[in-house]
Amino acid sequence: MRRLAILMLWATVALLNPGPGTTAPQDGAHDGGTSMGRVTGVGGVFLKAADPVALRAWYQEHLGIDVQDWGGTAFLWADDAADGMTVWSVGDGANFAPSDAPFMINYRVDDLRAMMQRLRDEGCQVVDDVQESEFGAFGWVLDPEGNKIELWQAPVDAAPAAASAAPAATYGLIGQMTATPGHRDELIAILLEGTTAMPGCLSYVIAKDPENADALWITEVWVDREHHAASLQLPSVQAAIARGKPLIAGFGVRYETEPVGRPGR
Asked: In the 3-class helix/strand/coil scheme, how is 186-227 assigned residue by residue?
């Protein structure tokens, strides 16, 4: 009966909310109105637990998930600020450590630093520190059964400058990124492909770290901070983030700079 209730709930959600979470049909996906059969999105996540009641209670208490009587909840995939996407990928699982589980679930959060501090205060097993990047902020925690959870706060667009303010100075970023072992070249190719046409970008240089076979450095120069923030919403950049994220093991130092000139200028 519980399984039937879950299936009925997801069917209702799909009928009432076919919006931003759905994907447009691809060429050849339909012929004369007849479906060819394909995956259009993630319909649900189902966890096996040694103690389901205790695990549901942990997720409800510490992550704030509104667990219902039938054993789960339904997230309507919509955002008042912007459309989003759900990433699905298969990899070697190196970034799942220290968990032995063959999966890791990423949850969007509204205030990552506040949540990570609360998890620590509540005695939860937090893994590593918060990592900031142009893709957003990431944090990790293990649930009571050893499953690694990734918490992600999307990058926030910079607030528009006041009309009376002076023109914004040029804006720069220098940051280090570490690929999962052996995947640096693949990650570089994805980043270069997804960042070829970004309005306001004066320079976007990716360099290999000669002392770390998996690390790379990204140096960016923009006409202003606002153009950089806007670039994160470009479809090509969003696609690069989705494809590259499974290949990213972590982020190193990150500096904001104020470029003052270049040869010939």
From this structure: HHHHHHHHHCCCCCCEEEEEEEECCCCCCEEEEEEEECCHHH
Same domain as 175, residue 253: yes
Under the banding of pLDDT at 50, 70 and 90, the label for residue 5 is: very low
Last residue of a domain, one of 111, 127, 153: 153
What confidence tens digit (pLDDT) does each residue in 158-184 have? Answer: 333 333 333 344 789 999 999 999 999
pTM listed for this prediction: 0.51
Distance CA 201, CA 105 (A): 33
Domain match, 141 and 210 both: no
Torsion region of 97: left, alpha or beta (phi above 0 gives left; psi -120 to 50 gives alpha): beta
Domain tally, the chain: 2
176 in Cβ contact with 250 (< 8 Å): no
Least confident of 21-35, 64-78, 116-130: 21-35
Handedness of CA 114, 120, 124, 130 (dihedral sign): positive
Structure tokens at 176: 């280090």
Contact 147, 101 (CB under 8 A): yes
The CA angle 185-188-189, to the nearest 5 degrees, is 90
CA atoms within 13 A on the CB side of 239: 10
Domain containing residue 148: CATH number? 3.10.180.10
The last residue of one of the domains, among 153, 183, 207, is 153
| Domain of 235, in residue numbers | 171-257
- The amino acid that residue 118 corresponds to is R
| For residue 25, cis peptide bond before it (omega within 30 degrees of 0) | no
